[in-house]
Amino acid sequence: MFVAEYHAKNCLMRQCSNCAVDKLPLMSKEASLSDSAPKVKWQKFEYVEVGVTGDGKKKKKLRLVDKVTLPGEMFSCPKELLNTYVPHQFRADWQQSRELFEHLPHNHAGAVHDYSENYNCQMQNEIQSLYYGQVQASIHVTILRRHALREIDGVKRTKEEPIDLSEHIFIISPDLKHDNHSVHQVRVFIDGYLKKIGYPSQVMHEWTDGCAAQYKSRHCMGDVAHFQRLWLSND
């Protein structure tokens, strides 16, 4: 059997006429949109409005929503999700990030960033006043990939033995906005950590999701543009 070295792009982008999601067979009862068909109960994650921000914009959060629909509407939902899952998996796992992390160049470092949802803080002995006001904290997670250092890790990376390590950095903050300013502070913290352990980082590779407010807005690009000046001023 012939196995291609790389996956076919048409298959990854769900444009293939031989293996696309439309080829997924369904029973007649599963695909039924008739009014005589029995309604089914199911759940789906959707963004719902939870309030209004200080500047008047609608505030939305991802919640599990109860649905009561015809069978055809329920089974069409996972088919739509499968259309986007394979391209997402390709970008997240198969592209250059894995290759780069496994063969990190000399004096390079890599980081994968992600913001978790806000979490409620629970106390063992909770006072009565906290019943009416929950204290929350945000968690920013970074997977940092770097070379091994003898002074820190007991071993040193060489060309003959390219030893690379992964570290998990969790930053817990009372800031619940998840904006570009908090992301900038995370970058400053990681940069300070690499300097503290004496890591000779010349290039930092970063991977993030597509959230514009956190990682991909004009403010974030401005922070990146001025970060070198900040980095040189802190030496």
Give descriptors for this structure.
235 residues; alpha+beta; 26% strand
What does this structure look like?
- The protein is an alpha+beta fold.
- The chain has two domains: 9-94, no CATH class; 104-120 and 134-233, no CATH class.
- It has six helices and seven strands; from the N terminus they run αββααβββαβαβα.
- The chain has helices spanning 9-12, 71-94, 96-102, 150-153, 180-196, 218-233; strands at 40-52, 58-69, 108-115, 119-120, 136-147, 164-173, 203-207.
- The strands form two sheets. Strands 3, 4, 5, 6 and 7 form a five-stranded mixed beta sheet that branches.
- A hairpin with a 5-residue loop joins strand 1 and strand 2.
- The longest helix has 24 residues, at 71-94.
- The protein is extended and about 70 Å long.
- The N and C termini lie far apart (58 Å).
Quick synopsis:
This protein has 235 residues and is α+β, with helices and mostly antiparallel strands.
Oligomer: single chain
Question: How many β-strand stretches?
Answer: 7
Determine the number of helices (DSSP H or I, runs of at least 4 residues). Answer: 6
The H/E string reads HEEHHEEEHEHEH
